[in-house]
Input
Amino acid sequence: MELLVNTISFIASSALDVLPIAVFLFAFQRLVIGGSMPNRFGILVGFGFVIVGLGLFLVGLEQTLFPLGRLMAQQLTHPEFVLEGTAQVISALRWQDFYWVYIFAASIGFSTTMAEPALIAVSMKANTVSAGAIGVLGLRVAVAIGVGIGVSLGCYRIITGLPLHYFIAGGYLVVILQTILAPKLIVPLAYDSGGVTTSTVTVPLVTALGLGLAEAVPGRSPLLDGFGLVAFASLFPIITVLAYGQLAVLRERVSKHRSESRDSEQEENHAL
Output
């Protein structure tokens, strides 16, 4: 019964959130463009699906993904799990003792990003526009590796209590240097790749993991330390996609050099 009430509440809240969008679109059509909205029935049905879908999605976050992320963080930082049965308390642990947390964070960041619908859409468009030069799977893997590294490093920051801005400033310094050196065609795509990762699949689990980790580690504040993982998940894909473009250029240069060397050897053999 409680779940049903929560579901109705979330759907009603979603309807209020979507209502201004619908009002603006219909008013713009009537007052600016002129005439009635074409296919009004289909559009209204679509809005209905959007409202119900958003409501159910919020219920899923509240009932599953947020508790799951918090539970995972608490279990991974439990003394018996970390130290395999020793009696040492968690407050005496060193950051190296949380290696399972780092491995899990990297894995969850990679896997959720590979399933991110927004990333799949961007990868397909990039492949089409580039006439196949940018591979769909290659771009997705590059972004997913960046998210995995970023989430793992973000968990390290939470556990150690180091300031967030040190990591973010250092990361963007690397991005600036890569932007200068990377091929210009990959730069806009790399910057967009950081944004599309923070969407419906990745953000709920990553946020819940950060909050749960901050709650489980003594001396850490969920408000001050628990947030920030999404920033890591947005930043490091830019670095890995730029590196992906740089490696592609390097591979092309090596292939071209080998081809020229092979042609030169053949010319020498013909001359002899």
